[in-house]
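for the writeup, i need someone to sanity check this before i put it in the appendix. the sequnce is what the collaborator sent (i think, or maybe the updated version? ugh). structure was predicted straight from it, no edits. if anything looks off just tell me and ill rerun, i have time this weekend
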Amino acid sequence: MRFNGWVTELNDKEAMKDISGDKSDGKGAGIDNLLYSADADYSCFADLAITSPAEYYKEGEGSLLQCVLTPADKYMSMSPDDVAEATLKQTLELFPSARELECTWTNVVKLGQSLYREAPGMDKYRPSQKTPIPNFFLAGSYTYQDYIDSMEGATKSGLACADVVLQQTARLSAMTKEDAAVTA
């Protein structure tokens, strides 16, 4: 959703409506982060005009919110206009100051089963770092670790993946020596 100002709760109405000048440095009056919400159907969202200005900032325009909706089954059968309307309604509840802005553009992309919503019993669906495929290891916030999809989770997963690789050092070293002998 694109707005004609900055969706924010920073309590500065003048800055919120200031879309003049070049703000391609990500210094729009919004929130520079990937955020999570338990109070909306979008489990995570970001103002792409601020978090990734090189790709998404447009001079003379404000926030570009990317909202990731879950549960998908609730929205898959809805029309794109109805999905956009429901998302805007939730956004205005989360950010009351945005009620003074106009949503100037929306786009809905539907990807079934691309996301999960954290709920009891869902961890069993997250893959571990070690896989049944030789020499193939996984790292990423979607893998099994203690943090929900986040930078901390990605870091923890990377460390766990490194541990799994280190546990395989002797086997991997032997394979490298075998490969060198074959090619010699």
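The mean pLDDT is 86. The chain is about 35% helix and 10% strand.
thx in advance!!
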